[in-house]
Write a sequence for this structure.
Protein backbone atom coordinates (compact mmCIF):
# COMPACT_ATOMS: atom_id res chain seq x y z
CA UNK A 1 0.00 0.00 0.00
CA UNK A 2 1.24 3.44 -0.86
CA UNK A 3 1.69 6.04 1.86
CA UNK A 4 -0.88 8.25 0.13
CA UNK A 5 -3.52 5.49 0.28
CA UNK A 6 -2.90 5.06 4.00
CA UNK A 7 -3.10 8.83 4.43
CA UNK A 8 -6.54 8.97 2.80
CA UNK A 9 -7.62 5.84 4.65
CA UNK A 10 -6.75 7.54 7.94
CA UNK A 11 -8.41 10.87 7.27
CA UNK A 12 -11.58 9.32 5.87
CA UNK A 13 -11.71 6.88 8.80
CA UNK A 14 -11.39 9.84 11.17
CA UNK A 15 -14.36 11.57 9.54
CA UNK A 16 -16.54 8.51 8.99
CA UNK A 17 -15.92 6.68 12.26
CA UNK A 18 -16.09 9.81 14.41
CA UNK A 19 -19.30 10.97 12.79
CA UNK A 20 -20.96 12.49 15.82
CA UNK A 21 -17.84 14.53 16.68
CA UNK A 22 -17.23 15.64 13.16
CA UNK A 23 -20.88 16.50 12.54
CA UNK A 24 -20.60 19.59 14.75
CA UNK A 25 -17.56 20.81 12.84
CA UNK A 26 -19.21 19.97 9.52
CA UNK A 27 -22.36 21.81 10.55
CA UNK A 28 -20.49 25.01 11.35
CA UNK A 29 -18.60 24.83 8.04
CA UNK A 30 -21.72 23.99 6.02
CA UNK A 31 -23.73 26.83 7.58
CA UNK A 32 -20.91 29.29 6.91
CA UNK A 33 -20.55 28.03 3.32
CA UNK A 34 -24.33 28.21 2.80
CA UNK A 35 -24.60 31.82 3.92
CA UNK A 36 -21.46 32.78 2.01
CA UNK A 37 -22.52 31.09 -1.20
CA UNK A 38 -26.05 32.49 -0.87
CA UNK A 39 -24.80 36.03 -0.31
CA UNK A 40 -22.35 35.85 -3.20
CA UNK A 41 -25.13 34.53 -5.45
CA UNK A 42 -27.29 37.48 -4.39
CA UNK A 43 -24.35 39.87 -4.78
CA UNK A 44 -23.87 38.84 -8.40
CA UNK A 45 -27.57 38.62 -9.17
CA UNK A 46 -28.53 41.95 -7.59
CA UNK A 47 -27.75 44.02 -10.72
CA UNK A 48 -29.92 41.70 -12.84
CA UNK A 49 -32.71 41.59 -10.28
CA UNK A 50 -32.58 45.31 -9.64
CA UNK A 51 -32.20 45.97 -13.36
CA UNK A 52 -35.51 44.20 -13.90
CA UNK A 53 -37.03 46.30 -11.10
CA UNK A 54 -35.58 49.50 -12.53
CA UNK A 55 -37.06 48.71 -15.90
CA UNK A 56 -40.45 49.48 -14.36
CA UNK A 57 -39.35 53.11 -14.36
CA UNK A 58 -39.19 53.28 -18.13
CA UNK A 59 -36.64 53.78 -20.87
CA UNK A 60 -32.99 54.27 -20.05
CA UNK A 61 -31.74 54.83 -23.60
CA UNK A 62 -33.03 57.17 -26.30
CA UNK A 63 -32.34 56.96 -30.01
CA UNK A 64 -32.59 60.09 -32.09
CA UNK A 65 -31.81 60.82 -35.70
CA UNK A 66 -28.45 62.41 -36.30
CA UNK A 67 -29.96 64.52 -38.99
CA UNK A 68 -33.73 64.68 -38.52
CA UNK A 69 -35.70 61.49 -38.56
CA UNK A 70 -34.38 57.95 -38.87
CA UNK A 71 -35.84 54.98 -40.68
CA UNK A 72 -37.20 51.64 -39.48
CA UNK A 73 -34.16 49.99 -41.00
CA UNK A 74 -31.86 52.30 -38.94
CA UNK A 75 -33.81 51.31 -35.86
CA UNK A 76 -33.52 47.62 -36.67
CA UNK A 77 -29.77 47.89 -37.21
CA UNK A 78 -29.39 49.80 -33.95
CA UNK A 79 -31.24 47.16 -31.97
CA UNK A 80 -28.89 44.49 -33.32
CA UNK A 81 -26.11 46.08 -31.22
CA UNK A 82 -27.99 45.19 -28.02
CA UNK A 83 -28.23 41.54 -26.87
CA UNK A 84 -31.83 40.33 -27.24
CA UNK A 85 -32.02 39.03 -23.68
CA UNK A 86 -31.16 42.47 -22.30
CA UNK A 87 -33.61 44.41 -24.44
CA UNK A 88 -36.76 44.72 -22.36
CA UNK A 89 -38.64 46.94 -24.78
CA UNK A 90 -38.11 49.29 -27.71
CA UNK A 91 -40.68 51.90 -28.76
CA UNK A 92 -40.11 54.06 -31.85
CA UNK A 93 -42.15 57.26 -31.95
CA UNK A 94 -43.25 59.40 -34.84
CA UNK A 95 -44.85 62.65 -33.80
CA UNK A 96 -47.23 64.54 -36.07
CA UNK A 97 -49.57 67.43 -35.50
CA UNK A 98 -53.07 66.05 -36.00
CA UNK A 99 -56.47 67.56 -35.32
CA UNK A 100 -59.38 66.37 -33.28
CA UNK A 101 -62.60 68.32 -33.54
CA UNK A 102 -60.60 70.92 -35.45
CA UNK A 103 -58.28 71.35 -32.47
CA UNK A 104 -54.53 70.62 -32.86
CA UNK A 105 -53.21 67.68 -30.86
CA UNK A 106 -49.86 65.85 -30.96
CA UNK A 107 -50.33 62.41 -32.45
CA UNK A 108 -47.74 59.85 -31.47
CA UNK A 109 -47.48 56.78 -33.62
CA UNK A 110 -45.69 53.84 -32.08
CA UNK A 111 -45.34 50.09 -31.87
CA UNK A 112 -47.80 49.42 -29.05
CA UNK A 113 -46.13 46.22 -27.85
CA UNK A 114 -42.74 47.96 -27.66
CA UNK A 115 -44.21 51.01 -25.92
CA UNK A 116 -45.98 48.84 -23.37
CA UNK A 117 -42.71 47.03 -22.58
CA UNK A 118 -40.60 50.20 -22.52
CA UNK A 119 -43.05 52.13 -20.33
CA UNK A 120 -44.54 49.62 -17.92
CA UNK A 121 -45.47 52.41 -15.47
CA UNK A 122 -48.09 53.86 -17.84
CA UNK A 123 -51.52 53.34 -16.42
CA UNK A 124 -54.14 52.70 -19.05
CA UNK A 125 -57.83 52.91 -18.28
CA UNK A 126 -59.26 50.41 -20.75
CA UNK A 127 -56.94 48.63 -23.15
CA UNK A 128 -53.88 49.36 -25.24
CA UNK A 129 -54.66 49.48 -28.96
CA UNK A 130 -54.28 45.90 -30.12
CA UNK A 131 -54.62 46.49 -33.88
CA UNK A 132 -54.91 49.16 -36.50
CA UNK A 133 -58.07 51.26 -36.31
CA UNK A 134 -57.67 51.73 -32.58
CA UNK A 135 -56.35 54.69 -30.61
CA UNK A 136 -55.33 55.50 -27.04
CA UNK A 137 -55.76 59.08 -25.84
CA UNK A 138 -54.01 60.93 -23.06
CA UNK A 139 -56.06 61.79 -19.99
CA UNK A 140 -55.84 65.56 -20.67
CA UNK A 141 -57.00 65.08 -24.26
CA UNK A 142 -59.84 62.86 -23.10
CA UNK A 143 -60.90 65.47 -20.59
CA UNK A 144 -60.68 68.38 -23.06
CA UNK A 145 -62.76 66.62 -25.69
CA UNK A 146 -64.91 64.58 -23.25
CA UNK A 147 -63.75 61.35 -24.76
CA UNK A 148 -64.23 57.90 -23.28
CA UNK A 149 -63.27 54.38 -24.27
CA UNK A 150 -65.38 52.91 -27.03
CA UNK A 151 -65.93 56.30 -28.72
CA UNK A 152 -65.23 56.63 -32.41
CA UNK A 153 -62.76 59.43 -32.95
CA UNK A 154 -62.06 61.18 -36.22
CA UNK A 155 -58.46 62.27 -36.51
CA UNK A 156 -57.46 64.73 -39.24
CA UNK A 157 -54.10 65.56 -40.73
CA UNK A 158 -53.20 68.31 -43.14
CA UNK A 159 -50.19 67.56 -45.28
CA UNK A 160 -48.03 70.67 -45.64
CA UNK A 161 -48.00 70.51 -49.42
CA UNK A 162 -51.79 70.11 -49.70
CA UNK A 163 -53.09 72.58 -47.19
CA UNK A 164 -56.56 72.67 -48.72
CA UNK A 165 -57.30 68.92 -48.33
CA UNK A 166 -57.42 67.10 -45.03
CA UNK A 167 -56.78 63.43 -44.58
CA UNK A 168 -59.06 61.89 -41.99
CA UNK A 169 -59.26 58.54 -40.31
CA UNK A 170 -61.82 57.14 -37.87
CA UNK A 171 -60.37 55.30 -34.91
CA UNK A 172 -61.94 53.58 -31.88
CA UNK A 173 -60.73 54.71 -28.48
CA UNK A 174 -59.59 51.62 -26.50
CA UNK A 175 -57.93 53.31 -23.53
CA UNK A 176 -57.23 56.54 -21.68
CA UNK A 177 -53.57 57.03 -20.75
CA UNK A 178 -52.70 58.30 -17.29
CA UNK A 179 -48.99 58.92 -16.62
CA UNK A 180 -48.97 62.15 -14.65
CA UNK A 181 -46.67 63.57 -17.36
CA UNK A 182 -46.73 65.23 -20.76
CA UNK A 183 -47.86 61.93 -22.33
CA UNK A 184 -51.40 62.78 -21.22
CA UNK A 185 -51.48 65.55 -23.84
CA UNK A 186 -50.94 63.12 -26.75
CA UNK A 187 -52.99 60.62 -28.66
CA UNK A 188 -51.38 57.27 -29.51
CA UNK A 189 -52.06 55.45 -32.74
CA UNK A 190 -50.37 52.63 -34.57
CA UNK A 191 -47.61 53.27 -37.11
CA UNK A 192 -49.78 51.83 -39.89
CA UNK A 193 -52.68 54.18 -39.06
CA UNK A 194 -50.29 57.15 -39.04
CA UNK A 195 -48.98 56.11 -42.47
CA UNK A 196 -52.56 55.88 -43.68
CA UNK A 197 -53.34 59.30 -42.21
CA UNK A 198 -50.27 61.09 -43.49
CA UNK A 199 -49.75 59.12 -46.66
CA UNK A 200 -46.07 58.88 -45.80
CA UNK A 201 -43.95 55.89 -44.87
CA UNK A 202 -43.03 56.04 -41.22
CA UNK A 203 -39.74 57.56 -40.13
CA UNK A 204 -39.07 58.07 -36.45
CA UNK A 205 -38.32 61.15 -34.39
CA UNK A 206 -37.22 59.21 -31.39
CA UNK A 207 -37.10 55.68 -29.98
CA UNK A 208 -37.26 54.82 -26.30
CA UNK A 209 -35.31 51.74 -25.29
CA UNK A 210 -35.51 49.90 -22.02
CA UNK A 211 -32.35 47.83 -21.59
CA UNK A 212 -31.57 45.68 -18.59
CA UNK A 213 -27.93 46.70 -18.16
CA UNK A 214 -25.83 48.93 -15.97
CA UNK A 215 -24.79 52.38 -17.11
CA UNK A 216 -21.25 51.40 -18.15
CA UNK A 217 -22.63 48.62 -20.35
CA UNK A 218 -25.31 50.94 -21.69
CA UNK A 219 -22.65 53.51 -22.63
CA UNK A 220 -20.81 50.78 -24.51
CA UNK A 221 -23.98 49.85 -26.42
CA UNK A 222 -24.60 53.52 -27.20
CA UNK A 223 -21.10 53.86 -28.62
CA UNK A 224 -21.53 50.72 -30.71
CA UNK A 225 -24.84 52.00 -32.10
CA UNK A 226 -23.26 55.35 -32.95
CA UNK A 227 -20.47 53.56 -34.83
CA UNK A 228 -22.67 51.00 -36.59
CA UNK A 229 -25.54 53.31 -37.55
CA UNK A 230 -24.31 56.86 -38.24
CA UNK A 231 -27.89 58.06 -38.89
CA UNK A 232 -28.78 57.33 -35.28
CA UNK A 233 -27.50 58.85 -32.06
CA UNK A 234 -27.93 56.82 -28.86
CA UNK A 235 -28.11 58.64 -25.53
CA UNK A 236 -28.51 57.41 -21.98
CA UNK A 237 -31.33 58.75 -19.86
CA UNK A 238 -28.93 59.98 -17.18
CA UNK A 239 -31.69 60.60 -14.64
CA UNK A 240 -32.52 56.89 -14.68
CA UNK A 241 -29.08 55.33 -15.23
CA UNK A 242 -27.30 57.48 -12.64
CA UNK A 243 -29.79 56.69 -9.89
CA UNK A 244 -29.71 53.00 -10.89
CA UNK A 245 -25.95 52.95 -10.56
CA UNK A 246 -26.03 54.68 -7.19
CA UNK A 247 -28.66 52.37 -5.73
CA UNK A 248 -26.94 49.29 -7.15
CA UNK A 249 -23.49 50.17 -5.91
CA UNK A 250 -24.85 50.90 -2.43
CA UNK A 251 -26.81 47.67 -2.35
CA UNK A 252 -23.84 45.67 -3.59
CA UNK A 253 -21.56 47.31 -1.04
CA UNK A 254 -24.01 46.35 1.69
CA UNK A 255 -24.17 42.71 0.55
CA UNK A 256 -20.37 42.65 0.24
CA UNK A 257 -19.99 43.99 3.77
CA UNK A 258 -22.37 41.37 5.15
CA UNK A 259 -20.47 38.69 3.17
CA UNK A 260 -17.15 39.79 4.68
CA UNK A 261 -18.62 39.80 8.19
CA UNK A 262 -20.07 36.31 7.65
CA UNK A 263 -16.72 35.13 6.28
CA UNK A 264 -14.94 36.43 9.39
CA UNK A 265 -17.54 34.86 11.70
CA UNK A 266 -17.28 31.56 9.83
CA UNK A 267 -13.51 31.58 10.22
CA UNK A 268 -13.79 32.26 13.95
CA UNK A 269 -16.44 29.56 14.32
CA UNK A 270 -14.43 26.97 12.38
CA UNK A 271 -11.23 27.88 14.22
CA UNK A 272 -13.00 27.46 17.57
CA UNK A 273 -14.46 24.12 16.52
CA UNK A 274 -11.11 22.88 15.21
CA UNK A 275 -9.41 24.02 18.43
CA UNK A 276 -11.88 21.88 20.36
CA UNK A 277 -11.38 18.95 17.96
CA UNK A 278 -7.60 19.18 18.33
CA UNK A 279 -7.79 19.62 22.10
CA UNK A 280 -9.78 16.45 22.60
CA UNK A 281 -7.25 14.55 20.48
CA UNK A 282 -4.12 15.58 22.37
CA UNK A 283 -3.57 12.01 23.53
CA UNK A 284 -3.82 10.70 19.99
CA UNK A 285 -1.36 13.35 18.83
CA UNK A 286 0.97 12.39 21.67
CA UNK A 287 0.70 8.75 20.65
CA UNK A 288 1.43 9.55 17.01
CA UNK A 289 4.49 11.52 18.05
CA UNK A 290 5.57 8.73 20.40
CA UNK A 291 5.50 6.18 17.61
CA UNK A 292 7.53 8.44 15.36
CA UNK A 293 5.26 10.97 13.61
CA UNK A 294 7.05 14.17 12.67
CA UNK A 295 5.37 17.54 13.27
CA UNK A 296 4.97 17.85 9.53
CA UNK A 297 3.07 14.55 9.28
CA UNK A 298 0.73 15.54 12.09
CA UNK A 299 0.04 18.94 10.52
CA UNK A 300 -0.52 17.20 7.18
CA UNK A 301 -2.96 14.70 8.64
CA UNK A 302 -5.01 17.20 10.62
CA UNK A 303 -4.96 19.70 7.77
CA UNK A 304 -6.08 16.96 5.38
CA UNK A 305 -8.96 16.10 7.70
CA UNK A 306 -10.07 19.70 8.05
CA UNK A 307 -9.75 20.34 4.32
CA UNK A 308 -11.79 17.23 3.52
CA UNK A 309 -14.33 18.49 6.03
CA UNK A 310 -14.20 21.88 4.30
CA UNK A 311 -14.77 20.17 0.96
CA UNK A 312 -17.87 18.31 2.19
CA UNK A 313 -19.10 21.49 3.91
CA UNK A 314 -18.48 23.39 0.67
CA UNK A 315 -20.52 20.93 -1.39
CA UNK A 316 -23.38 21.17 1.11
CA UNK A 317 -22.98 24.95 1.27
CA UNK A 318 -23.07 25.35 -2.52
CA UNK A 319 -26.37 23.44 -2.70
CA UNK A 320 -27.99 24.98 0.35
CA UNK A 321 -26.63 28.42 -0.56
CA UNK A 322 -28.58 28.30 -3.81
CA UNK A 323 -31.75 27.37 -1.91
CA UNK A 324 -31.06 30.23 0.52
CA UNK A 325 -30.44 32.76 -2.28
CA UNK A 326 -33.54 31.53 -4.12
CA UNK A 327 -35.71 32.07 -1.04
CA UNK A 328 -34.29 35.57 -0.49
CA UNK A 329 -34.78 36.42 -4.16
CA UNK A 330 -38.35 35.14 -4.22
CA UNK A 331 -39.24 37.10 -1.10
CA UNK A 332 -37.40 40.33 -1.91
CA UNK A 333 -37.48 40.54 -5.72
CA UNK A 334 -40.37 38.14 -6.40
CA UNK A 335 -38.33 36.46 -9.10
CA UNK A 336 -36.10 33.41 -9.40
CA UNK A 337 -32.39 33.73 -8.94
CA UNK A 338 -30.05 32.85 -11.77
CA UNK A 339 -27.90 29.85 -10.80
CA UNK A 340 -24.19 30.55 -11.14
CA UNK A 341 -22.48 27.24 -12.01
CA UNK A 342 -19.07 28.68 -11.29
CA UNK A 343 -20.17 29.28 -7.74
CA UNK A 344 -20.08 25.52 -6.96
CA UNK A 345 -16.32 25.09 -7.39
CA UNK A 346 -15.76 28.58 -5.94
CA UNK A 347 -17.75 27.77 -2.77
CA UNK A 348 -15.94 24.45 -2.35
CA UNK A 349 -12.55 26.10 -2.87
CA UNK A 350 -13.28 28.95 -0.46
CA UNK A 351 -14.70 26.51 2.09
CA UNK A 352 -11.59 24.32 1.86
CA UNK A 353 -9.29 27.33 2.16
CA UNK A 354 -11.22 28.92 5.03
CA UNK A 355 -11.35 25.64 6.95
CA UNK A 356 -7.67 24.96 6.26
CA UNK A 357 -6.62 28.46 7.32
CA UNK A 358 -8.78 28.50 10.44
CA UNK A 359 -7.45 25.08 11.44
CA UNK A 360 -3.83 25.95 10.89
CA UNK A 361 -3.30 27.68 14.24
CA UNK A 362 -4.88 24.99 16.46
CA UNK A 363 -3.12 22.30 14.40
CA UNK A 364 0.25 24.00 14.77
CA UNK A 365 -0.28 24.17 18.51
CA UNK A 366 -1.12 20.45 18.43
CA UNK A 367 2.46 19.68 17.49
CA UNK A 368 3.56 21.09 20.85
CA UNK A 369 1.99 18.08 22.60
CA UNK A 370 4.59 16.22 24.62
CA UNK A 371 4.59 12.55 23.62
CA UNK A 372 5.72 11.64 27.13
CA UNK A 373 2.17 12.54 28.26
CA UNK A 374 0.86 9.27 26.87
CA UNK A 375 3.64 7.26 28.51
CA UNK A 376 2.75 8.72 31.88
CA UNK A 377 -0.61 7.06 31.51
CA UNK A 378 -2.53 10.34 32.00
CA UNK B 1 29.47 -2.29 22.68
CA UNK B 2 26.22 -2.41 24.63
CA UNK B 3 22.99 -1.63 22.78
CA UNK B 4 22.01 0.86 25.46
CA UNK B 5 24.24 2.52 28.01
CA UNK B 6 23.31 5.18 30.56
CA UNK B 7 26.34 6.95 32.04
CA UNK B 8 25.83 8.97 35.20
CA UNK B 9 22.41 10.20 34.30
CA UNK B 10 20.81 13.02 36.28
CA UNK B 11 17.36 14.49 35.76
CA UNK B 12 16.77 17.45 38.03
CA UNK B 13 13.54 19.46 38.37
CA UNK B 14 14.33 22.38 40.68
CA UNK B 15 15.15 20.74 43.98
CA UNK B 16 13.92 17.34 42.93
CA UNK B 17 16.38 14.78 41.62
CA UNK B 18 14.12 12.49 39.61
CA UNK B 19 17.20 10.53 38.51
CA UNK B 20 20.36 10.79 40.51
CA UNK B 21 23.55 9.46 38.97
CA UNK B 22 22.08 6.37 37.33
CA UNK B 23 24.32 4.20 35.17
CA UNK B 24 23.34 0.97 33.48
CA UNK B 25 23.94 -1.14 30.42
CA UNK B 26 21.55 -3.24 28.38
CA UNK B 27 23.00 -5.72 25.92
CA UNK B 28 21.46 -6.63 22.59
CA UNK B 29 18.84 -9.35 22.98
CA UNK B 30 18.60 -8.87 26.74
CA UNK B 31 15.35 -8.78 28.71
CA UNK B 32 15.50 -6.28 31.55
CA UNK B 33 12.81 -5.30 34.01
CA UNK B 34 12.74 -1.99 35.86
CA UNK B 35 10.92 -1.93 39.16
CA UNK B 36 10.40 0.59 41.88
CA UNK B 37 7.73 2.37 43.88
CA UNK B 38 5.88 5.43 42.60
CA UNK B 39 8.17 8.46 42.35
CA UNK B 40 11.27 6.30 42.13
CA UNK B 41 12.15 7.67 38.68
CA UNK B 42 10.85 4.81 36.53
CA UNK B 43 8.80 7.05 34.23
CA UNK B 44 11.60 9.57 33.89
CA UNK B 45 13.99 6.79 32.93
CA UNK B 46 11.44 5.39 30.46
CA UNK B 47 11.05 8.81 28.87
CA UNK B 48 14.81 9.22 28.53
CA UNK B 49 15.37 5.72 27.13
CA UNK B 50 12.30 6.21 24.87
CA UNK B 51 13.82 9.44 23.47
CA UNK B 52 10.97 11.53 24.79
CA UNK B 53 13.05 13.44 27.31
CA UNK B 54 16.66 14.39 27.82
CA UNK B 55 18.74 14.04 30.97
CA UNK B 56 19.97 17.16 32.77
CA UNK B 57 23.41 15.59 32.87
CA UNK B 58 25.04 12.42 31.61
CA UNK B 59 25.21 10.35 28.45
CA UNK B 60 22.62 8.02 26.96
CA UNK B 61 24.24 5.88 24.29
CA UNK B 62 21.84 4.01 22.04
CA UNK B 63 23.71 1.94 19.50
CA UNK B 64 26.75 4.15 20.20
CA UNK B 65 24.88 7.44 19.57
CA UNK B 66 24.48 9.86 22.48
CA UNK B 67 20.77 10.60 22.27
CA UNK B 68 21.09 13.22 25.04
CA UNK B 69 22.73 15.49 22.50
CA UNK B 70 20.24 14.93 19.64
CA UNK B 71 17.67 17.47 18.46
CA UNK B 72 13.94 16.88 18.98
CA UNK B 73 13.57 16.03 15.29
CA UNK B 74 16.37 13.45 15.44
CA UNK B 75 14.90 11.97 18.62
CA UNK B 76 11.60 11.46 16.76
CA UNK B 77 13.50 9.66 14.00
CA UNK B 78 15.39 7.48 16.52
CA UNK B 79 12.12 6.63 18.29
CA UNK B 80 10.53 5.72 14.97
CA UNK B 81 13.44 3.59 13.76
CA UNK B 82 14.81 1.93 16.89
CA UNK B 83 12.15 1.80 19.59
CA UNK B 84 8.84 -0.04 19.88
CA UNK B 85 6.59 1.31 22.62
CA UNK B 86 3.98 -0.59 24.64
CA UNK B 87 1.79 1.38 27.04
CA UNK B 88 -0.20 0.49 30.12
CA UNK B 89 -3.32 2.06 28.64
CA UNK B 90 -2.72 0.60 25.16
CA UNK B 91 -3.23 3.93 23.40
CA UNK B 92 -4.67 2.73 20.15
CA UNK B 93 -6.20 5.24 17.75
CA UNK B 94 -9.87 4.65 18.46
CA UNK B 95 -11.18 5.21 14.93
CA UNK B 96 -8.68 2.90 13.25
CA UNK B 97 -9.12 -0.87 13.13
CA UNK B 98 -6.60 -3.21 14.74
CA UNK B 99 -4.73 -3.73 11.48
CA UNK B 100 -4.80 0.00 10.67
CA UNK B 101 -3.32 0.75 14.10
CA UNK B 102 -0.44 -1.59 13.30
CA UNK B 103 -0.07 -0.04 9.86
CA UNK B 104 0.12 3.40 11.48
CA UNK B 105 3.55 2.52 12.88
CA UNK B 106 4.61 1.31 9.42
CA UNK B 107 3.24 4.53 7.88
CA UNK B 108 5.49 6.72 10.02
CA UNK B 109 8.44 4.34 9.70
CA UNK B 110 8.53 3.46 6.02
CA UNK B 111 5.70 2.06 3.90
CA UNK B 112 2.40 0.60 5.13
CA UNK B 113 2.01 -3.07 4.23
CA UNK B 114 -1.34 -4.59 5.18
CA UNK B 115 -0.12 -8.17 4.63
CA UNK B 116 2.80 -7.69 6.99
CA UNK B 117 0.56 -5.96 9.54
CA UNK B 118 -1.82 -8.94 9.35
CA UNK B 119 1.11 -11.29 9.97
CA UNK B 120 2.07 -9.24 13.05
CA UNK B 121 -1.50 -9.54 14.33
CA UNK B 122 -1.35 -13.25 13.59
CA UNK B 123 1.78 -13.51 15.77
CA UNK B 124 -0.16 -12.05 18.69
CA UNK B 125 -3.13 -14.30 17.90
CA UNK B 126 -5.45 -11.59 16.65
CA UNK B 127 -5.66 -12.23 12.90
CA UNK B 128 -9.41 -12.80 13.17
CA UNK B 129 -9.91 -9.49 15.01
CA UNK B 130 -7.95 -7.40 12.51
CA UNK B 131 -10.93 -5.44 11.22
CA UNK B 132 -12.28 -4.61 14.67
CA UNK B 133 -12.09 -1.18 16.21
CA UNK B 134 -10.37 -0.88 19.63
CA UNK B 135 -13.78 -0.38 21.27
CA UNK B 136 -14.77 -3.83 19.99
CA UNK B 137 -11.70 -5.49 21.55
CA UNK B 138 -11.08 -6.58 25.15
CA UNK B 139 -8.27 -4.99 27.17
CA UNK B 140 -6.03 -7.99 26.56
CA UNK B 141 -6.71 -7.89 22.84
CA UNK B 142 -5.96 -4.18 22.71
CA UNK B 143 -2.65 -4.75 24.46
CA UNK B 144 -1.78 -7.46 21.96
CA UNK B 145 -2.52 -5.03 19.11
CA UNK B 146 -0.20 -2.61 20.91
CA UNK B 147 2.48 -5.34 20.99
CA UNK B 148 1.98 -6.04 17.28
CA UNK B 149 2.33 -2.31 16.57
CA UNK B 150 5.51 -2.13 18.66
CA UNK B 151 7.20 -5.02 16.88
CA UNK B 152 6.07 -4.32 13.29
CA UNK B 153 9.14 -2.23 12.39
CA UNK B 154 11.64 -4.68 13.94
CA UNK B 155 12.88 -2.17 16.55
CA UNK B 156 16.21 -2.48 18.39
CA UNK B 157 14.41 -2.19 21.70
CA UNK B 158 10.87 -2.82 22.84
CA UNK B 159 10.08 -0.51 25.72
CA UNK B 160 7.01 -1.54 27.72
CA UNK B 161 5.50 0.62 30.44
CA UNK B 162 3.35 -1.40 32.83
CA UNK B 163 2.23 -3.61 29.96
CA UNK B 164 0.09 -5.81 32.20
CA UNK B 165 -1.11 -3.06 34.53
CA UNK B 166 -4.62 -3.04 33.10
CA UNK B 167 -4.96 -6.73 32.31
CA UNK B 168 -6.50 -9.69 34.09
CA UNK B 169 -4.42 -12.74 34.93
CA UNK B 170 -5.22 -14.68 31.76
CA UNK B 171 -4.32 -11.78 29.50
CA UNK B 172 -1.23 -11.01 31.58
CA UNK B 173 -0.04 -14.55 30.87
CA UNK B 174 -0.66 -14.13 27.13
CA UNK B 175 1.34 -10.89 27.04
CA UNK B 176 4.23 -12.35 29.09
CA UNK B 177 4.25 -15.34 26.73
CA UNK B 178 4.50 -12.93 23.82
CA UNK B 179 7.51 -11.29 25.51
CA UNK B 180 9.12 -14.73 25.80
CA UNK B 181 8.54 -15.30 22.13
CA UNK B 182 10.00 -11.91 21.20
CA UNK B 183 12.99 -12.46 23.47
CA UNK B 184 13.64 -15.88 21.94
CA UNK B 185 13.62 -14.20 18.53
CA UNK B 186 16.41 -11.91 19.74
CA UNK B 187 14.41 -8.74 20.58
CA UNK B 188 15.78 -6.54 23.37
CA UNK B 189 13.07 -5.91 25.95
CA UNK B 190 12.93 -3.28 28.68
CA UNK B 191 9.84 -3.67 30.81
CA UNK B 192 8.82 -1.23 33.53
CA UNK B 193 6.45 -2.88 35.96
CA UNK B 194 5.06 -2.81 39.44
CA UNK B 195 4.22 -6.48 39.22
CA UNK B 196 7.01 -8.71 40.61
CA UNK B 197 5.63 -11.69 38.72
CA UNK B 198 6.13 -9.86 35.44
CA UNK B 199 9.51 -8.49 36.52
CA UNK B 200 10.90 -11.83 37.68
CA UNK B 201 10.63 -13.49 34.28
CA UNK B 202 13.27 -11.12 32.89
CA UNK B 203 16.99 -11.86 32.82
CA UNK B 204 17.72 -8.89 35.05
CA UNK B 205 15.64 -6.66 37.26
CA UNK B 206 16.80 -3.16 38.10
CA UNK B 207 15.22 -1.67 41.19
CA UNK B 208 15.00 2.10 41.40
CA UNK B 209 14.42 4.00 44.60
CA UNK B 210 14.41 7.81 45.00
CA UNK B 211 15.99 8.29 41.60
CA UNK B 212 18.92 5.97 42.30
CA UNK B 213 19.63 2.49 41.08
CA UNK B 214 18.99 0.70 44.34
CA UNK B 215 19.51 -2.90 43.36
CA UNK B 216 20.14 -5.17 40.42
CA UNK B 217 18.80 -8.70 40.58
CA UNK B 218 20.20 -11.11 38.03
CA UNK B 219 18.18 -14.16 37.28
CA UNK B 220 21.07 -16.65 37.07
CA UNK B 221 18.80 -19.45 36.09
CA UNK B 222 17.09 -17.60 33.26
CA UNK B 223 16.08 -20.06 30.60
CA UNK B 224 13.06 -18.30 29.32
CA UNK B 225 11.10 -19.90 32.16
CA UNK B 226 10.01 -18.26 35.38
CA UNK B 227 12.36 -18.49 38.39
CA UNK B 228 11.28 -17.07 41.64
CA UNK B 229 14.18 -17.41 44.11
CA UNK B 230 15.72 -13.99 43.59
CA UNK B 231 12.37 -12.26 43.48
CA UNK B 232 11.28 -13.89 46.72
CA UNK B 233 14.17 -12.14 48.43
CA UNK B 234 13.12 -8.87 46.79
CA UNK B 235 9.52 -9.28 47.86
CA UNK B 236 10.54 -9.89 51.45
CA UNK B 237 12.65 -6.75 51.45
CA UNK B 238 9.83 -4.70 49.95
CA UNK B 239 7.32 -5.84 52.55
CA UNK B 240 9.68 -5.21 55.48
Amino acid sequence: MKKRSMYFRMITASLLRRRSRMLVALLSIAIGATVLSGLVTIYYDVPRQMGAQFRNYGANMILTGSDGRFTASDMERSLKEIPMEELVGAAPYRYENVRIHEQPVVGAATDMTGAKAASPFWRVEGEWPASDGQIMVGANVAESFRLKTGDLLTVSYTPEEHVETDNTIDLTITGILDTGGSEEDFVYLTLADMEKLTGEVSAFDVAELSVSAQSDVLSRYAEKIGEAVPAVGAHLVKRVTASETTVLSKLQALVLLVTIVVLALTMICVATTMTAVVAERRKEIGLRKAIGASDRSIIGEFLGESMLLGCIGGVLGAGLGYVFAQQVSLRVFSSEIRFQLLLIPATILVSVLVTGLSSLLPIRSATDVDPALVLKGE
Amino acid sequence: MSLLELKHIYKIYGELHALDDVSLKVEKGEWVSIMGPSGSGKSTMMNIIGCMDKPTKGEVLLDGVDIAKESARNLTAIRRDKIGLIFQQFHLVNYLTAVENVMLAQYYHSMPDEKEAMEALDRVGLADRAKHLPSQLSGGEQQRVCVARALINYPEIILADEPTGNLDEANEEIVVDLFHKLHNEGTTLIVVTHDPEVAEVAQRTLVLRSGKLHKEIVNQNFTGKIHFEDMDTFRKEETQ
